[in-house]
Amino acid sequence: MKYTVIIPTNRPIEKILPLLQSLEAQTEQAAAIFIIYDKILGPSELKSMQTYIAANCSDDFSGRIQRITNIDHAFVPHTGVSYMRNFAVHLVKTPYILYVDDDNTFAHDFTQRLLHTATAYHKQYNTDCILIPTERYQ
User: Is 107 helix (H, G, I), strand (E, B) or coil?
Assistant: First the structure.
């Protein structure tokens, strides 16, 4: 597990379930999935999200999902996608980051192919690598 997924969103958890299911089906699994919410949440809404994820995803996968909210982080909601990504990137502990939009879905081998390409060229360019999907992989 060489990568972390960052999902900035302000949508209800039910609306991003197709993305989560797509990530869960990957042949190369993420070490962590950060869902960062660009809205103010209350404790009951956070609890509902946890329950929904647990009911719709495997224990292993849901255990790697971290919700980044105004409740549990010094995070300022309603500041836009760039702020959310920059905030989340400081929490990442893997060599690669995959930024995705909350309405993306991917073929089951997308991350495996992406990581293969990234690792093949990473040493050649000797630079950090952030993985960003394009619309053609939806």
Answer: coil
**Cα gap 85→27, rounded to integer Å:** 25
Measuring CA to CA, which residue among 126, 119, 113 is closest to residue 96?
Answer: 119
* CA dist., res. 97 & res. 117, Å (int): 14
Q: In whole angstroms, give the CA distance from residue 16 to residue 103.
A: 6
Rounded to 5°, angle at Cα 23 from 45 and 40: 25
DSSP code for 109: T
Return the closest-CA partner of residue 1 out of 30, 22, 32, 24.
30
pLDDT by residue (tens digit) across 12-24?
999 999 999 999 9
The answer, yes or no, to whether residue 39 has pLDDT greater than 80, is: yes
Contact by Cβ (8 Å): 53, 26: no
| Predicted model pTM | 0.85
**Residue 75: both structure tokens together:** 């995070």
Q: How many whole angstroms separate alpha carbon 13 and alpha carbon 69?
A: 13
Judge whether 135 and 43 are in contact, CB under 8 Å. Answer: no
- Residue 30 has a CB neighbour count (10 Å cut-off) of 23
